[in-house]
Amino acid sequence: MKRVYIVVEGQTEQEFVNSVVAPYLNTLGIYSVTPVLIRTSRSGRGGMVNYSHLENTVKMLLQSSSTDFIITTFIDFFRLPTNMPEYDECSSIADKDERIDRLEAAIDKAIDDRRFFAYIQKHEFEALLFSDNKGFEYYFTDECAKETGSIVSAYDSPEDINSSPSGAPSKRLLAIKPDYNKVLEGNLIALEIGINVMLEKCIRFARWIDTIEKKAKASNR
């Protein structure tokens, strides 16, 4: 079984991998799952305002000649750096799913290593939290949970929640609850919902988890 490294943008995603993704993969027999914060400088960790931050972090991990690991990413489509590979060409694609697929393929081509594959979350981590309102009902006030419930019921897929910069999932949460704590509350809500509900509601996310499983279990031959 291969080790899995997941390159993430920030502490929220790091904690999500540790508390939600890794335990689920453990149940599938994949026991070594490590989130890796993007390096922004020699001492800086987290955030991504430039594609080079992602590229350098991934290539650092790929320096090993070993083939017993895979590397993937967990980065947001929302406010993706504009210097990503083939960003300008992809920006003309109207369908967002197709655009994200093309961007992921462009990153894979740029990295050019079979141990690596890119994943871009549509639109961001918070989209997963809208898979079910029960997480908000548990941690938010009744008034706030009523507003989040309206958003949940308005979309067939939580991955489609993003009508404008102010309509991004995280922006909607901040509008409802200005003191929303992304790292703490976001992950508590995720744990309350459970990954199985997210996998059922979020097609792209489910496809990513399935790809991790297949690649981690694949033979090195």
Walk me through the structure.
The protein has 221 residues and is α/β, with parallel strands linked by helices. The chain folds into two domains: 141 residues, Rossmann fold (3-Layer(aba) Sandwich), CATH 3.40.50; 69 residues, no CATH class. The chain contains eleven helices and five strands. Strands 1, 2, 3, 4 and 5 form a five-stranded parallel sheet that branches. Helix 1 links the parallel strand 1 and strand 2. The longest helix has 17 residues. The radius of gyration is 17 Å and the shape is globular.
Distance between the termini: 13 Å
Mean pLDDT, rounded to whole units?
92
Total count of strands: 5
Please identify the top-level CATH class of the largest domain.
Alpha Beta
- Helix tally equals 11
Total of domains? 2
The CATH topology name of the largest domain reads: Rossmann fold
The fraction of residues in strands falls at: 5-15%
Structural class: alpha/beta
What sequence of helices (H) and strands (E) makes up the elements?
EHEHEHHEEHHHHHHH
CATH architecture term of the largest domain:
3-Layer(aba) Sandwich
Overall, the morphology is globular
Q: How does the major sheet shape up?
A: 5 strands, parallel
Low-confidence stretches: none
Radius of gyration: 17 Å
SSE topology:
Layout: E1 3-8, H1 11-27, E2 33-37, H2 51-61, E3 69-76, H3 87-91, H4 96-111, E4 116-117, E5 120-121, H5 125-129, H6 134-139, H7 142-154, H8 169-176, H9 184-193, H10 195-201, H11 203-217
Helix pairs in contact: 1-9, 10-11
